[in-house]
Every structure is written in structure tokens, then in C-alpha cells.
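Page 37, continued from 36.
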């Protein structure tokens, strides 16, 4: 389980930011109740609309302190009309409601008794002359789901291809060492005791971007991420020591790319491979793990989140 840490109650700047977000939310309520309001036709810059929709969703429904074991991602797309390259407030209000409806649908689809929105990421995906398309990417904490990773690093796992554990137990099918490494890294993320997130960003990292200055003690490539070459079958079995080594590698990568003022929310890790045929006719596999780290800026907030 992630570690919870106490953080300060926040600064004057944090309170001023929260007041701005609440003022935006109040205006959404006002326009919803009075759709013919003259100020509903006032324009808003696209970037500002996206930022406030995301921030308001997280302040109202998100809980940065959730320590539920699993992390469930879902997505949706919303089309918003443009007027002279900007979004009218009445259309911002409709888009905000559509975002909340999407988050509610994501919440309802999670087969778990305990679940909580941790962070919503709203981003601009496409722009045309008359519309913009927004992506709603949700991250929910939930009770343990999936393939039974367990909470300890006491078993060896196949490197990838969801082959499960390679300790003779036959357990863990549907997961692999990449999932186990990410799980262990996520257990050690420092989770605040309250608050919400804004300014969500991501960093995808491939092995060749993070070389090490010393030889890999487990015989794999000299990188902070797994890289290996095999022939015949892609069945490399990673020991608990190797899993711990790459867990620590994820920590390093997360800190290398962390934006100033941001916190690490989640580590993601998956397997990839380039396949081929050797000159002697054997199958060959160039195996790698790919990392993606999710960051955001944390803000204090003593008000419990609303239900979706």
C-alpha cells in the first residue's frame, strides 16, 4: 500500500487558486440554471477552459489521498464547439457536465466495492475550424483486481507476454514482471493525507534513454529498464533480485523526469518486443520494458470529495 505522508495545510497561493476554481464552478452552476444568461455568450480561451474543467473536476470529485491498491484507467472523448477560435461559457458549462458524466460512467463500470477518483486528466486532442475534441482520462483507485500479483517480492516472474510467475506455481497468468515491478514501485509513492491534483502530465521513457554507468548485475542490458535478447522462446525468468533492481530503476527515472513542483502519481510499465529470424532459422526476440510516469501538482483541500 502506498505510504501516506502529512503535508502542509497550504499557502495563500493555494487558497487563492482554490477560490478561483470554486468561482468557476459557481459560474457553471449559474449558467446551467440560467442558460439564456447574457454572460453565457462571453468567450473563453481554449487552454483556460481545459485547465479549469480539469481542475474543477479534481477539486470536486478527486481525492489525492486514496490508498486503494489497484489503479483503473478509462477514457472518453468530448466535442466542443468553437466560436471565433474560442469557447463560449455556455459551451464550457456543457463540456464540464459531459466530463462529469463520463467520470460517473467510468466509476460505475469498475467492478469493485471500494473505488475513488484520484485524478482526472482533461486534454486537448484535436482542433478544427469549428470544434475542439477533448480527451477525458480518469484514474480511479480500487480494491485489488486483476491477476493476483500479491504484495511481496518473493517470486520470480516471466519478463513479459503476461506469462505469470515462473516459480513452478502456475500463478499470475495475465500479469508479468513488468506489472510486478510497477506494482512494487507504486507501493512506495508518498500519498498525501488530503487534497487534489492539477496540471497532469506524463513522461514515456524507453530503455535507451536511461543507460546506467555500471554493468547490470543480472546480465541484462546496462539500462534502468529491462532490455534483453533471446532466441527460440521469449521466456526469460526474472528473479526477485532483478525485479527489485528495476523497481529502483523506476524510482530513478521518475525523479529524473519529474517537473518542478509536481508529484509522482503513478508508475506504468509494460513489455514490448521486436521479433525476427536468425540466420540459422531460429526465432529471435529483442525484449524491452517501457515506462510511463504520471505527474501532477498537489494542492491541499480539507473538504471531502463529492460522490460521482
Amino acid at each position: 500500500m502506498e505510504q501516506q505522508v502529512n503535508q502542509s495545510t497550504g499557502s495563500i497561493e493555494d487558497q487563492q487558486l482554490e477560490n478561483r476554481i470554486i468561482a468557476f464552478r459557481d459560474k457553471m452552476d449559474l449558467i446551467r440554471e440560467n442558460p439564456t444568461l447574457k454572460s453565457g455568450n462571453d468567450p473563453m480561451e481554449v487552454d483556460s477552459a481545459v485547465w479549469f474543467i480539469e481542475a474543477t473536476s479534481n477539486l470536486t470529485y478527486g481525492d489525492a489521498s486514496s490508498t486503494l491498491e489497484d489503479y483503473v484507467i478509462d477514457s472518453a472523448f468530448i466535442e466542443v464547439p468553437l466560436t471565433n477560435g474560442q469557447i463560449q461559457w455556455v459551451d464550457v458549462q456543457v463540456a464540464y457536465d459531459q466530463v462529469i458524466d463520463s467520470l460517473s460512467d467510468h466509476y460505475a463500470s469498475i467492478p469493485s466495492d471500494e473505488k475513488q477518483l484520484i485524478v482526472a486528466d482533461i486534454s486537448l486532442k484535436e482542433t478544427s475550424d469549428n470544434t475542439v475534441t477533448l480527451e477525458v482520462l480518469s484514474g480511479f483507485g480500487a480494491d485489488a483486481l486483476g491477476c493476483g500479483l500479491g504484495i511481496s517480492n518473493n517470486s520470480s516472474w516471466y519478463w513479459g507476454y503476461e506469462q505469470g510467475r515462473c516459480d513452478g506455481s502456475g500463478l499470475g497468468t495475465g500479469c508479468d514482471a513488468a506489472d510486478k515491478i510497477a506494482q512494487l514501485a507504486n507501493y512506495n509513492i508518498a500519498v498525501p493525507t488530503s487534497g487534489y491534483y492539477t496540471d497532469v502530465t506524463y513522461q514515456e521513457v524507453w530503455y535507451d534513454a536511461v543507460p546506467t554507468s555500471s554493468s547490470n548485475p543480472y546480465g541484462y542490458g546496462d539500462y534502468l529498464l529491462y532490455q534483453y535478447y533471446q532466441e527460440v522462446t521469449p521466456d526469460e525468468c526474472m528473479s526477485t533480485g532483478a525485479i527489485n533492481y528495476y523497481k529502483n530503476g523506476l524510482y530513478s527515472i521518475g525523479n529524473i523526469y519529474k517537473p518542478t513542483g509536481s508529484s509522482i502519481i503513478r508508475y506504468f510499465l509494460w513489455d514490448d518486443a521486436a521479433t525476427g529470424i536468425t540466420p540459422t532459422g531460429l526465432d529471435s526476440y529483442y525484449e524491452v520494458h517501457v515506462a510511463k510516469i504520471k505527474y501532477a501538482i498537489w494542492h491541499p483541500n480539507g473538504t471531502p470529495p463529492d460522490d460521482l
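Residues 35 and 90 are 7 Å apart (CA to CA). Flag for discussion at group meeting. Residues 157-299 form one domain.
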